[in-house]
Amino acid sequence: GWRPARGLGTQAGGLRAERPADSSKQVSVSRAGKEDTLLSAAHRVKEAGKDFTYFIVVLVGIGVTGGLFYVIFKELFSSSSPSKIYGDALDKCRSHPEVIGVFGESIKGYGEATRRGRRQLVSHIEYVKDGLKHMRVKFYIEGSETGKQGTVHVEVKENPEKGRFEFRYIFVDVDTYPRRTIVIEDNR
Known about the structure:
Layout: H1 3-77, H2 82-94, H3 97-103, E1 108-110, E2 112-113, E3 119-121, E4 123-129, E5 132-142, E6 150-159, E7 164-174, E8 181-186
Antiparallel strand pairs: 1-5, 2-3, 4-5, 5-6, 6-7, 7-8
Subcellular location: Mitochondrion inner membrane; Mitochondrion membrane
GO cellular component, one term: TIM23 mitochondrial import inner membrane translocase complex
Subunit structure: Component of the TIM23 complex.
């Protein structure tokens, strides 16, 4: 008959543990009313603060994203961006019979190599001459003819009437033997 004794022991322990807890509970009840309302008010303010912080973070995020889209959009679609000038000049190179004759079909263009070896940087210089904006762009091309490489030199000038840049010239220097320069456009 050991089992009932163990049962009694735990019960007695349980009762003993509960008694002091009961008496302390009664004391704190009267104080809790005020504290609860204060706590919940503080909690509400804290939560509102947190929500406001999230709101600001979201706004900043939207702002940054919008800014990036604007920059990308301007870069790709504005007539005055190096990438747009590069794209237009590359198209003219691709459709020029002499360039196709030297470099072959499927002509690819690429910029300067970055430190990581990616060839993305289209080097360009902007300057103002006679009150008009000019830009020089330089990039490289190669086609299906192996070993043939070329450097494309482009200059554009702002046309204030049309509000866009127009080509002054596009030359392709054949960098491999026999060296020569192919003039694609010259409006100087």
